[in-house]
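Example record used in the benchmark description.
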Amino acid sequence: MPQLTPEEAVSLFLIKFLAILWEAMPFIVLGAILAGILEEFLPQQAITKFLPKQMLPAVMIGALLGLIFPMCECGILVVMRRLLRKGLPLACCIAYMLAGPIINVVVIFSTWIAFRDHNIGWEMVGLRVGLAFVVACVTGLVVQSQYRKYGKSLLVDVAAPLSAPMAVPVTPAIPAPAPTRTDPDPLPPQKKAFIDRLGNISATAMHDFVDITLFLIIGAALAAAAKLFITPGQVEALSRDQPYLAIPAMMALAVVMCLCSEADAFVAASFTKMHTSAKLAFLVLGPMLDLKLLLMYTRVFRPRLIIIIVLSVTLQVLIFTLMVHLVYQANGWTGLPSARG
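Model output (structure tokens):
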């Protein structure tokens, strides 16, 4: 990369910063609106009534919630936080947060479009969706084991599930008088007017938007600064000269670039000299962990839980993509976009 003057560096930083910010902003707004609707209309613990009692199938359903609530990683955090407060188990919320930006119709279709001309369209879709599902479920189960040990201390106060009000013991010393015929009938619950519901949705959405956007801005600034020193060309050269470092290099690039999951497949497809396994690592890790997400996670999780999520996701993506690489080698496949073997 040629040496930049201070003016060029500042200009490039602003361009990259605004690109990340404006790419993510519509999804933050959409996620905040959906979170407001869920807060107003979704009854407390309504979703949990339909979940299996066993944790594994419940987490697997959580990983597939993106098919019902499709959001990219920028907007899914506010939706997940509201679902968590509504009583959805933490393990299911984690699975949804990690897998939802990948296992939804829009991202599946965009991944196929990006790789169809490389003759690996459905192959990449299957690998990406399958690996995201496994990583999300395993991480959800790991988090659940920690939640049993530490409880709500893993969550910030604004994200902790709402507890049912404690029952007040009744002293039987003085029995309550029996109602007489003159006692008025209890008033039926009043239905909220539409304008009141709209006001509640707007207030909740605005609160979540402001709360999350601050950390999006900080993350976007960090990512833009990192992009000044790491370029896709450097990563591709590393893959060519040191092929065994291609997977961790693409994972690092995914964390730095902060791409939207609905567009990252086209960036990955542009690395024509990169092995499929390395591009797979880029496509799975990016929507789960990047610089802006790590900052946004602080509005939901305590540091202990963030570290658990980061380690679980990173190690799984690294191990599973290395296994994919070995499978390709064992079958004599090149892993390049044009052909096999």
